[in-house]
Amino acid sequence: MSDLKFSEKGMKKYEWLLTRYPDKQAVLLPALRIAEAEFGELGIPEMKYVADLMGISPARVYGVVTFYTHFRRAGTGTFHIQVCSTLSCALRGSQELADHIAKRLGIEMGETTEDGMFSVSKVECLGSCDTAPMFQLNDNYHENLTLDDVDRIIEDCKKESARGGAR
Amino acid sequence: MSEATNPETPLVNWVLNGQPVQSPAGMTIFEAAKALETTIPNFCYHPGLTIAGNCRICMVESNRSKKPVISCSERIAEGLEIQTESPMAIEARNAVMEFQLINHPLDCPVCDKAGECDLQDYSYDHGPDRSRFDEEKNIRHTKELGPTIDIWGNRCIVCTRCVRFCDEISGTGELCVVERGDRSVVDVFPTVPIDNPLAGNVVDICPVGALISNDFKFEARIWNMRKTDSVCAGCARGCNVEVQSLDGFVKRLVPRENMEVNKWWMCDEGRYDYRYLLADERVTACTKDGEPVEDHDAHETLAHWLQDPGGTLGILVDPYITCEEAFLVEQIASHANNALVGGWKPADGTAQSFPGQFTISGEKAPNRLGVEAVLGKLVFGSQGHALRTALEKGQVSTLIVFAGFPHPDPDDAWVQAIRKAKRRAVFALQAGAWTEGAGLVIPGASPFEKDGTYANEDGRLQRVRSFHAPGDVEWSHDLQRLQAVLRIAGLRPRSLSSSAVFRELADVKKPFHGLSHSTLPATGAPLPGFIPLPVGVEGGSV
Asked: Once rounded to an integer, what is the mean pLDDT over residues A55-81?
């Protein structure tokens, strides 16, 4: 996996970012965003690449990536459902929502379906308390959810996947 | 720390537990209180690492804050009033302990840290006697982090001492905290295990039993072990160590704080290098011409050799003998009509330095300077060459060899040369090239079993002690054997303790003037003349 490398555009953006922050370490988060966009996910080789690029220890990158739930780690399904489970959503039935999704997909929270299509995880506040309960599907918010909405969204994903699109 | 030691630093008036006190400006509450002998509980604070302030156990009551403040990062100021034992401070610590114990398995009965665990101590002082936590405890990983270190994640309180150690002291940065909240735990990058020359220190600084040394795992309970303050003989650095043993077996070495030598650390090379004590090659009984003999017979034979060397007496010393043993060697040599004393030590390697200002010396010899201070500055130089030349020419009739090398690495030229002596007696740690064909082989003590003093590469004289309990050892160490031989030969009236021999040494050898075992500070003392002394210190160079 040593051929892993930012594209020219990605590298340009990374170099521009270096000029934007007083401290090189501060560039780690946006650099990981570039890596995510370029490589699709953040697995061991991808994290190692970013660490080597920035000249910091791979363990540091690993710690940062695992701290946040919003990074796409290796092995995540095509569709990543992140169910908000913090206060407002919890009061508005996020547990029921999560149970429903898990049951429908036949997996537990934090797992990925066997076909690699769906991953589902419980995350902390996504800052959308006014539209609770909600989840994030890949990069999009789905708000004011009912159980019917969930069924519809999951069906949409399956159709989209059958057409060959991921998002 | 520099503020505290600089006499120019202005003093600050503040109040600690109702007592008006003065401390140098710039100190944290924690450090100032510690200097005044008031200890505040702490997990994440370590004097050798940066301040993290994440464990919150060091909270105290301050007159400048409505809420308790963390004493490890708050600095003292004029008029500050701190209560470390007020109801508010104690309540704050109790609350922290209750949180710390929520997910802690309380598996002290099977935990290797039990007995020296901060969490255990503070739990006793501050922890609730029962849990109010009804939910299930979470489970975190238990696995190997590297060849020598295991993590028991459930015990981890995420103080990050180990992470900071790898970032700041060893500079290798293998450790990190993964995940967050109650799932967070120390881990390594999946393809980069923790494997650096100082890795073992993370086990020592872990305030709980999360990081466990593979070498010591399930070996002994802390409170059953005998603890002996000594010095590591792995290199010329002379790190201060505590040798912990059980039933006459060394179980582990841990570093002792000595700001002049090793600070709080030691290297893995020294830490795990004690197995040679039990090596198969270890010499355990005296032999004469290959046949086992009683100790007394061996001593008597050597005494006769000394009384009548039949020509030139040669003595080959190693850098593992103590200053006291070197002194007896000099006595033997001075009584002979014709004596040559020389030394040999393995070639130096390269020194390793780390960002945390810790150095592993390239010189794998614990007492070269001490031996030189007694037997002459050139003992390992031209005196050694002279002895070897004489040996090669067959001019030495009786030779005494001190071969206390833990890792036999004999030099071929020397091995050939010593065979040319007509009679050879070897004080040997291990059988091998040095002892082969020797007329007399006497078991030598390892540095862990010696009693005396070593001088490190800076010329700092430090105490070495045997880890054996008095009366535990069936056979005596080199110093006692040498004295027995000298007594039989009529060269010394009686056998004395190591301290008494040192007193004789201090009387006649200038670098040791005024020093004694009982007055030698725990941190050792510089031998004048062997290091550049700071201006204003009495002694000067020899």
From this structure: 93
Q: How many residues does chain B have?
A: 542
Amino acid identity, residue B425?
Answer: A
Helices (H), B426-497: 478-488
Per-residue pLDDT tens over the stretch B12-26: 999 999 999 999 999
The partner residue sitting opposite B180, judged by closest CB among A56, A57, A67, is: A67
Given this structure, which CATH class describes domain B279-315+322-347+366-445+475-526? alpha beta
Contact B162, B205 (CB under 8 A): yes
Average pLDDT, chain A: 92
List where CATH 3.10.20.740 sits in chain B: 2-99
The full DSSP string for B51-68 is: ----S-TTEEEETT-SS-
Instruction: Identify whether the C-beta of residue A133 lies closer than 8 Å to the C-beta of residue A122.
Output: no
Please tell me the predicted confidence (pLDDT) of residue A165.
62
The Cα–Cα gap between A44 and A60 comes to 13
Taking CA atoms, B427 is separated from A77, B49, B254, B294, B320, in Å, by: 69, 44, 29, 15, 12
**Do residue A44 and residue B190 have CB atoms under 8 angstroms apart?**
yes
Residues of chain B with CATH 3.40.50.740: 279-315+322-347+366-445+475-526
Name the CATH architecture for the domain at A79-163: 3-Layer(aba) Sandwich (3.40)
Domain boundaries, chain A: 8-67, 79-163
Considering only the beta carbons, identify the residue of B178, B190, B192 that sits closest to A63.
Answer: B178
Spatial contact of B267 and B351, defined as CB atoms under 8 Å apart: no
Domain B2-99 class, CATH top level: alpha beta
Strand partners, B430: B282
Both tokens assigned to B344: 């040999």
Q: What dotted CATH number matches A8-67?
A: 1.10.10
Strands (E), B73-194: 81-83, 142-144, 149-152, 175-178, 185-188
A152's tokens = 């519809």
* Identity at B386, one-letter amino acid code: A
Q: Indicate the range of A113-122, B19-28, B207-216, B520-529 predicted with least confidence.
A: B520-529
Q: Mutation target for A interface from B54, B138, B168, B178: give the one with most A CBs within 10 A.
A: B178
Rounded CA-CA distance B329/B374 in Å is 9
The answer for A 61-90 residues in CB contact with B (under 8 A) is 61-63, 66-67
